[in-house]
Write a structure and sequence with these properties.
Radius of gyration: 23 Å
Keywords: Oxidoreductase
Number of helices: 17
Largest sheet: 7 strands, parallel
GO molecular function: saccharopine dehydrogenase activity
CATH architecture of one domain: 3-Layer(aba) Sandwich
Number of strands: 18
Distance between the termini: 51 Å
Protein name: Saccharopine dehydrogenase (NADP+, L-glutamate forming)
């Protein structure tokens, strides 16, 4: 038996756990799922003979290291800041590691040690990052093999609510880690357009969103995502004039989120006491109190909008204009906002989410300029087996299977940009209706 250890049983783990347990009898696997919440683990694993639930505090070094020592492969779906703890243990005990999270400076500092140990740490093996890398590299390699010269690469991806479940003024519901949603974009963005490096700071990231036409869906808004330039080398497109990775949302979300940023409600730098603070006091903490104005009018006046505007409706929907007490102890503004969106923008049991990804690549071949559109739309089944859980979890599961079957000869700190990885993973994803449609103009 091969032992797979999975850290984290949250929203993104559901379909990964399904995949591992379906494959366990045939592949002779035993799966240990470790999380601080035993009931959550059991709700995802059922009574399978092939699984062991492990309720542990990830900071408990002895318990954590014992699980890692007993495993043949480790998968981490913990919050990004906690991966490094698991990674150091995997290095210490000689275990391969898979995660869907970005390569960060801490893991980058261990790159040589990972390589020297002959281990494979495959990062960015989820949706975005993950499927975006694999599908993009397949297109890029195909164009280059036929003699095409690429001049522009743009890639967009978003976790959205499916149109039939899109019933609130934010046009958004949470299908993944709420903390990640609150902090998204906080480091700003940098990308390259027509030969010029462009930077957008966090304060203006959401208010400059532009739109893109998606087949069968219509217009979605986009904003540039993190540091696109860091991937030019990974994609072997160092010298092209335009290179950008971006996030997709419905337009109303970007307008509303831009307002939350302006009000300072996404700030994560200092803690405030919320026990005797109302939601309105919190939301208006940077405003001067205005006499003879209602809560709506005061915030609308500060923002320079009508008290009957869509943005005021959005703030009311989140409960930010009422006198209820927050009563959550000491939190940062970002922590309060996370509490708010978890309560107000959660998915109902019958809700379905949707993943949209589109690549636009311009290239020249034999004197003819062509634009390639490649897009994927994935629908969730319900609030548990979401499109997000499918597209984050299944690439990890497929990669785990390939490693344990001895089909991967790669070592070091990697992301999935090689044909030996992306071809079999994308092929198997098609069995789960995760596939791309292409068109040329």
């Amino acid at each position: 038996m091969k032992n797979i250890l999975l850290f984290g049983a949250g929203k993104s783990a559901t379909c990964l756990i399904d995949y591992l347990l379906v494959n366990a009898p045939r592949q002779k696997w035993h799966v240990t799922v470790a999380d601080h919440d035993l009931m959550l683990i059991k709700s995802k694993t059922g009574k399978s003979y092939y699984v062991t639930p492990a309720a542990i505090n990830i900071q408990d070094e002895a318990a954590r290291q014992q699980l890692i020592q007993e495993s043949d492969l480790v998968i981490s779906l913990l919050p990004p800041a906690l991966h490094i703890i698991v990674a150091r243990d995997c290095l210490k005990f000689g275990k391969n590691l898979l995660t869907a999270s970005y390569i960060d400076p801490e893991i980058k500092a261990l790159e040589k040690e990972i390589e020297d140990a002959g281990l494979l740490f495959m990062y960015e093996m989820g949706l975005d990052p993950g499927i975006d890398h694999m599908s993009a590299m397949k297109l890029i390699h195909s164009i280059e093999k036929k003699g095409g010269q690429i001049s522009s690469f743009k890639s967009y991806c978003g976790g959205l609510i499916s149109p039939e479940s899109n019933d609130n003024p934010w046009q958004y519901k949470i299908s993944w880690n709420a903390r990640n949603i609150v902090m998204a974009g906080s480091s700003g963005a940098i990308y390259k357009e027509k030969g010029k490096v462009k930077e957008t700071d966090y304060a203006h990231l959401f208010d400059q969103s532009k739109t893109i036409q998606i087949p069968t869906l219509g217009k979605l808004a986009w904003y540039p995502n993190r540091d696109s330039l860091a991937y030019m080398k990974s994609y072997n497109l160092d010298d092209i004039p335009t290179f950008m990775r971006a996030t997709l949302r419905y337009p109303d979300f970007c307008e509303g989120w831009s307002t939350l940023v302006k009000l300072g409600l996404t700030d994560d730098s200092k803690r405030i006491q919320t026990d005797n603070l109302t939601y309105y006091q919190w939301a208006s903490q940077h405003l001067k109190p205005a006499k003879d104005l209602s809560n709506e009018e005061n915030i609308a006046h500060y923002l320079g909008i009508s008290a009957k505007s869509k943005i005021i409706r959005q703030l009311k929907f989140l409960g930010l204009l009422n006198g209820d007490l927050i009563h959550q102890g000491e939190l940062t503004n970002a922590g309060v906002l996370q509490h708010v969106v978890e309560n107000k923008l959660g998915m109902e049991p019958t809700d379905k989410d949707m993943i949209v990804m589109i690549h636009e690549i311009e290239f020249e071949r034999r004197g003819i300029t062509t634009r390639l559109h490649s897009y994927m739309i994935v629908q969730g089944e319900d609030h548990l087996r979401t499109a997000m859980a499918k597209t984050v979890g299944l690439p990890l599961g497929i990669m785990a299977k390939m490693i344990l079957q001895g089909k991967v000869n790669l070592t070091g700190l990697q992301i999935p940009v090689l044909a030996d990885i992306y071809n079999p993973v994308l092929k198997e994803l098609e069995e789960y209706n995760i596939r791309f449609e292409e068109s040329f103009e």
